[in-house]
Amino acid sequence: MPAKLNPASKPSPASARDLPSTGRLITTAELATHNTPASCWLAVRGKVYDVTSFLDRHPGGRDLLLFAAGRDATQVFETYHQFKVQGTLPKYLIGDLADNELPVFPAPSPFFVAVKERVYEHLRTNVTSDPKWAVGMWVRYAGIYSMVVAAWYAQLWVWPQGGWAQWLAAVVLGFFCAQIGLNPLHDASHFAVTHSPWVWKLLGATHDYLNGASYVVWIYQHMLGHHPYTNIPNADPDIATNEPDVRRIKAVQPWYKHYLHQEWFVPVLYGVLSIKTRIQDVTILYTLKKNDNIRINPLTAWHEAVFWSGKAFFVFYRLVVPVVFAGLSVGRTLALFLVADLVSSYWLALTFQANHVVEETKWPEPNERNEMSIDWAEMQVATTQDYAHDSAFWTIATGSLNYQAVHHLFPEISQYYYPMIAPVIMKTCQEFGVKYLVQRTFWDALGSHLKYLKVLGLNTHEEDLKKKEAKAQ
User: Fold this and answer.
1) CA distance 462 to 472
2) Nearest Cα to 356, choosing from 233, 174, 187, 246?
3) Which whole number is the average pLDDT over 267-293?
4) Closest by alpha carbon to 98, among 72, 77, 74?
5) CB 7 within 8 A of CB 114
6) Which GO terms describe its cellular component (predicted)?
7) I want to staple 178 with a disulfide (CB 3.0 to 4.6 A). Which of 12, 144, 158, 344 is the partner?
């Protein structure tokens, strides 16, 4: 194990912001126009870099830079690189960022530096292979894809006459389609499986073809939105709401009468997640061109082809094949589709909600200049809840998201190693006074989500918040 690091003893790494001013101010509006292969700019720590010439030499592939282009990519850059990599940036420097489109964070704190240093040292000491490589994960992927094919085939040709077995096959299909989202898709979207951009692309494409939902939209929502800005209103797409919305999950949302008892009806609505996602894919990419406040850059030919062919194949294998080739009625086909979709939706939605939308997690907000006062790594722990660390079932069945704080701090590491590095992170949190939330079971975590919905649904909640704020002052 690495030697103990005193919280105050190690300074934060040199920041890109420490570079001298170029004398050229670039607004976020101007930066946003440089988001193509012909002109690829991005910002890190208040400095703007033209990385167009680096696109084809980037070790992570050109797609990653094109996703990040035209925006402040500080948190993504610092998450997926060691701090020393900042030394490669100055040669591409072209200007200073004049304003903040989305929240910006202080330079990495001693906690962030220490936890990153200790986890990688622990992996170097205890893991002989690359932390992006684990044979066990490929076995898991193979099992997931095999079960999707087997369950789909069984409901059409093994038990085509109906009965409980056919419905069971639909349930199994839905569960393992959700596992595609929690495992190969999720791992690929964080580049946590091998160092090959083509592996990430191909694994991501299976989500398009087998689930009918877009890998590209997920990248923008999850990797560029949710992870950098976890639980921050108007920045994290995962907590985006309308006015009014079907549910109240943020204290900043005005209260309406229909929020009363939302803990009873909102979880039922989670069943439409899959259908809602497939429809929103189209509106996000081609109508809105943004997901909440995360802008969508122009698609490459590859991603556009995968998007539309994925939608077409999904309709073909889930709706056309059962009727035309397996001889099922339209009604039976739609019913089986709905059962599988409900299972997928509930499994995914409840897994995600139990991690962030719960009683004890924080909902940080920036000041009027879009500046955050909390360190980014500390915020990841504060906005996240773990559960069931001692359960192999929940670790496998949730794609290791029962170690959500571990995942948010180290998304680039294979989930296979989360149980190994969790004690290192928890010990570092304890040393630095960072509260680490973990529930004993999944049901405790889910219960916390339902209790949170209940509290936010009460019309007294805003008054309680005002009283707490007044008392704090």
Assistant:
1) 15
2) 233
3) 97
4) 72
5) yes
6) membrane
7) 344
Rounded-to-integer distance, Cα 382 and Cα 21, Å = 34
Q: What is the mean pLDDT of residues 438-466?
A: 88
What mean pLDDT is predicted for residues 451-472? 73
Domains and CATH numbers, the chain: 16-101 (3.10.120.10), 108-473 (no CATH)
User: What are the φ/ψ torsions at residue 317 (nearest 5 degrees)?
Assistant: -80, -25
Cβ(177)–Cβ(208) below 8 Å: no
Query: What are the tens digits of pLDDT across the range 221-262?
Result: 999 999 999 999 999 999 999 999 999 999 999 999 999 999
Query: How many CB atoms within 10 Å of residue 433?
Result: 9
Number of residues written out for the chain: 473
Task: For residue 288, give the DSSP letter.
Answer: I
The per-residue pLDDT of the chain, averaged, comes to: 94
Cis peptide before 244 (omega within 30 of 0): yes
- Residue showing tokens 């499986």: 193
What is the percentage of the chain residues whose pLDDT exceeds 70?
A: 93
